[in-house]
Design a protein that fits this description.
The chain is elongated. The chain has 2 domains: 273 residues, Aminopeptidase (3-Layer(aba) Sandwich); 111 residues, Alpha-Beta Plaits (2-Layer Sandwich). The chain is 34% helix and 27% strand. By secondary structure, the chain is α/β, with parallel strands linked by helices. An 8-stranded mixed sheet has the order 1-2-4-3-5-16-6-15, sandwiched between helices. The longest helix is centred in the last third of the chain and has 20 residues. The protein has 10 helices and 16 strands.
Length: 395
């Protein structure tokens, strides 16, 4: 029996009121990475009320895996992230954040609501011939940040062993630069490798009126910064994708004192592994300028998420499931996504779901918001994709 597209469209639309209610509640009570206690408890209550899921709690932190099985067939994972950002919300909507300094500024509130919508329709269909195998709904903590081990929620959930049997995995991301009714997809490398660096320049400070008596680390830092920024255009092949950006510079506490130490922190983004390795190598070379100018340094590089790798065959299924929407092809930019850990291990793909408002909002913006009419589209695309995979034995 083939999945009836019109049926899923109408049933997803009928969920719209609840999708909005859930999304706004998540938005009012955002929680940072590895602190998603209330969020997790709310999701667990909703899932358990459906009475068809085997619910695993506290996976990789506050993560949840809700599993439903019916008959023989592949195991399909559908993932949504749960955490918010350390952003002070500046919007004036009635559902603005009630947790000071924390905000859902990346759409994770919508991702969770959409996956709860998938859970509701899946619960209705579980004994039908649409469900031919296993579906695991993955509510993942800590996409935005890692812990002291350098691990995000994706890494921890994958280490749990509860997901070892996945045949395919799906996810979406809200897309504020596309309008409702639009979808952006891309085969292969689609989001960036994300690595961070922390360079400490050690000099010898002293009185600002006597700079000739000190070894000024701020002066040394000016040469470092010039070299870092020239790296973008002079070491990376212009046909490749790679960039380095400085996000933090810390030095001194007074206007009349030359400090002993300057800290420079930043990020490196790339698509190809060879470009990733080149950027790391070049930063090590640039750091040697410090000793040439009489200072000392320490350099720490933390390797983050790999580039997101989308499977073309999975994308074909997503596009079939999204029939009727307007498609745009192209990489999703230089942001990173720890869903990349899933697609490096299992065939899978993430698509970007249009949700843009008349006045476009950027991801991580302090007044970020979405067109909530986009939510039912996410439900039916994810669920229809899973059904198509089960009909075809995971192919």
């Amino acid at each position: 029996m083939k999945t009836e597209v019109t049926d899923l469209v109408s049933r997803s639309q009928q969920l719209w009121g609840r999708l909005v209610e859930w999304r706004r509640d998540f938005h009012r009570y955002p929680e940072l990475s590895f602190r998603e206690k209330r969020t997790s408890e709310k999701i667990i209550r909703k899932l358990e009320s459906l009475k068809v899921f085997d619910v695993h709690k506290n996976v990789g932190g506050y993560g949840i895996i809700a599993t439903v099985r019916h008959g023989e067939g592949p195991t399909i994972g559908i993932r949504a992230d749960m955490d918010a950002l350390p952003v002070i919300e500046s919007s004036s909507v009635p559902w603005t954040s009630l947790n000071p300094g924390v905000m859902h500024a990346c759409g994770h509130d919508a991702h969770m609501s959409i996956l709860l919508g998938v859970a509701h329709l899946l619960a209705e269909d579980v004994t039908s011939c649409r469900v031919k195998g296993t579906v695991k709904l993955i509510f993942q903590p800590a996409e935005e940040s890692c812990d002291e081990l350098g691990e995000t929620g994706a890494t921890k959930m994958l280490k749990s062993g509860h997901l070892d049997d996945l045949d395919h995995v799906l996810a979406l991301h809200m897309c504020p630069w596309r309008r409702t009714g639009e979808l952006q997809w891309n085969d292969g490398l689609s989001m960036a490798n994300n690595d961070e660096f922390h360079l400490e320049i050690q000099g010898s400070g002293g009185h600002a009126g006597y700079p000739h008596h000190v070894n000024d680390p701020v002066w040394i830092a000016t040469y470092i910064l010039q070299s870092l920024y020239s790296l973008n255009g002079r070491k990376v092949d212009p046909l490749d994708i790679g960039t380095i950006s400085v996000g933090q510079i810390h030095a001194g506490d007074a206007t009349n004192v030359i400090p002993d130490l300057v800290e420079i922190k930043g990020t490196m983004r790339s698509y190809k592994e060879e470009v990733r390795e080149l950027l790391v190598k070049e930063i090590h070379q640039i750091a040697k300028i410090v000793t040439a100018l009489g200072g000392d340094y320490t350099l720490q590089i933390n390797q983050g998420e790999p580039a997101l790798l989308n499977d073309p065959k999975v994308n074909e299924i997503i596009k079939e499931a999204a029939s009727g929407l307007k498609f745009h092809e192209g990489p999703f930019g230089m942001g990173s996504e720890d869903f990349s850990h899933f697609t490096r291990r299992f065939p899978g793909a993430m698509f970007f779901l249009g949700c843009g408002l008349d006045k476009e909002k950027s991801l991580h913006q302090s007044d970020f918001d979405i067109d909530e009419r986009s939510l039912p589209h996410g439900v039916r695309i994810l669920l229809h994709s899973a059904y198509l995979m089960m009909e075809r034995g995971g192919r």
